[in-house]
Amino acid sequence: ESLGVRPDQVVDYKAMVGDKSDNIPGVVGIGPKNAQALLGKYDTLEEVYEHLDELKPGQQKKLQTDRDNAYLSQELSRIVTNLNIPLDLEKARVTSFEPESVRDLFRELEFRSLMSRLSNVMHILGMTETQQASEQLSMFDHKPSEGLVEASTDTKSIVVDTPEGLEKMVKALNAADVIVFDTETTSTDKMQANLVGISLAVRPKELGIQPDTLHFHLAQYLDEMHF
Asked: What keyword terms does UniProt attach to this protein (predicted)?
């Protein structure tokens, strides 16, 4: 219905209109409305070419010029359904996967819309990022963790929101032997989160935060200090 033709005419419709997402060329100059009208009158691509002499000169020329592309596009648009391929649905069932490996592949292939769906798939499968990390560690025979050290809440937080404060913090960072780095985001889901700040610590129980605000252009001062 969305294409304006019957289901059995979709292949011939794409043969004339083409499909850029699948690199199907179609016939140059024949758009959806023309294809709908032609198939509405002649039913199939073959019948359209059988009655070329009945068409307007412009349509005749376009269809004649791209005849080879039309039949190539027809072949490319047709889904082959008679291949003898055994399918075991149980073996095809997905119970778990490695999110980072999948994300790396999606980035390489530029599958941006699929990337945003991974979190939903993981939720459906009952997977979590923590669970996945544990599974990956087990692959390399790591010893079980002896337990997590509870983080201290007795910290001194310094909000850096002026050029002077930033300069002071940069000096402290340059003089430090060890720097602890973290990010502050709007969500723990890294596919949906937006960055709102950066946390840096050079001494125990002391934390520096660089917020991104309208009043303090952080990048400008970092650039000026060559940091």
From this structure: DNA-binding
